Amino acid sequence: MMKKMTFILATALLAQPVFAKGVEAHNAYARAVVSGVQQSGAFVTLKNTDAKDNVLVGASVSKRFAERTELHTHINENGVMRMREVKDGIPLPAGEVVELKPGSYHIMFFGLKQEMKAGKKIPITLKFKNGKAKKITATVKEIQKTAAPHQHDHQHGEHHNHDHHDHAHGEHH
Ligand SMILES: [Cu+2]
């Protein structure tokens, strides 16, 4: 009995450095857009479980989905939200959670080849500064029903819609 417990403990301790390291990805989703719209965005919550800072330096999808994938952020420029490519990547400080979300950091698709319908699964490869890569699957969902993504003048409205959606969802319960 003692021996067995010691063995389990030792295994757990040995296993820890292997499984606790790296960047975890949770809740990956992409914005549904109507047919003909060429751009969309994807979002994911990343947790850097390493003791070292890391950076999300790139993201890619199969050419079957989109021509090009970039990492973007939104900045407030004199009260107007504008989108910018983040050339230096998205910082992932050690031990911290970074949420890619509408109005903030996001993965951006250009030249969509397929309609981004709700429920569709998009495999995305994330690349990190430490040379590691991670495959995630984003589920397409409706984030905003009307305007095309990244009409940045409407960013404020997007937030309202999003909040409203969450609220409405809560009321169902
Ligand atoms: Cu963008």
Automatic annotation (TrEMBL):
Region of interest (Disordered), residue spans: 145-173
Keyword list, A-Z: Signal
Signal peptide: 1-20
Biased composition (Basic and acidic residues): 150-173
Residues annotated as transmembrane: none
Gene3D superfamilies registered for this protein in UniProt: PCu(A)C copper chaperone
Family matches, as InterPro entries: LpqE-like, Lxx211020-like, PCuAC_sf
Protein name as annotated: Uncharacterized protein conserved in bacteria
UniProt source species: Alysiella crassa
Lineage: Bacteria, Pseudomonadati, Pseudomonadota, Betaproteobacteria, Neisseriales
